[in-house]
Design goal:
Two copies of one chain form a homodimer.
Chain A lengths: L1 E8 L8 H16 L5 E9 L9 E9 L2 H8 L3 H6 L10 E7 L2
Antiparallel strand pairs in A: 1-3, 1-4, 2-3
Chain lengths: 103, 103
């Protein structure tokens, strides 16, 4: 199993429309990924571990797939449309990471 | 539900002993957190989204708790012991983030 993390940095001046993200963007991603998508989560940063500290990321999203190949097969045909939607909810570029689930 | 993410940056020269982490550190964390811990995952970075790119983080770990208060109650008494174990498996300081699970 692999996880694709999409991390939106909490840069000064950054904006993020969580309502649009949850009600429009993520349902569109889910529909485009189809059965290849095995699970997804969206987390909104609260703090940096201790009260009063800043979270490093405004939002961390995770998408589960069976394999890197399954992710690429599902994502690449939809990449332009998904990435083209990003400016509708944020002004920061997300950091994307593909990881192997170890535990 | 809240998620505590522990992100180990993929800095040049960084080291990470995944065997120790999975067989010693995470079981110790699990035991210290007890019933407050509602789930955990450990992901090992493969790439930055496209083949041949670098993952921003060597490892991303997530820990689920019912609330920030439940996390703090479980973590703070064990913090010194857990943090003191970090140099046994890595030479990078993790970035910690507490987030609210939205989806």
């Amino acid at each position: 199993m692999i996880r694709v993390n999409v991390l939106y940095p909490n840069d000064p001046g950054s904006t993020f429309d969580m309502h649009y993200y949850l009600s429009k963007h993520m349902p569109m991603v889910q529909q485009k990924m189809g059965a290849a998508l095995k699970g997804m989560t969206v987390d909104q940063g609260l703090n940096g571990g201790l009260p009063g500290t800043e979270a490093a990321h405004r939002v961390i999203t995770s998408l589960l797939f069976d394999s890197v190949e399954a992710f690429e097969r599902a994502f690449l045909p939809a990449a332009a449309e998904i990435q083209g939607d990003i400016p509708r909810y944020t002004n920061v570029a997300p950091v994307v990471q593909v990881s192997e689930v170890k535990m």
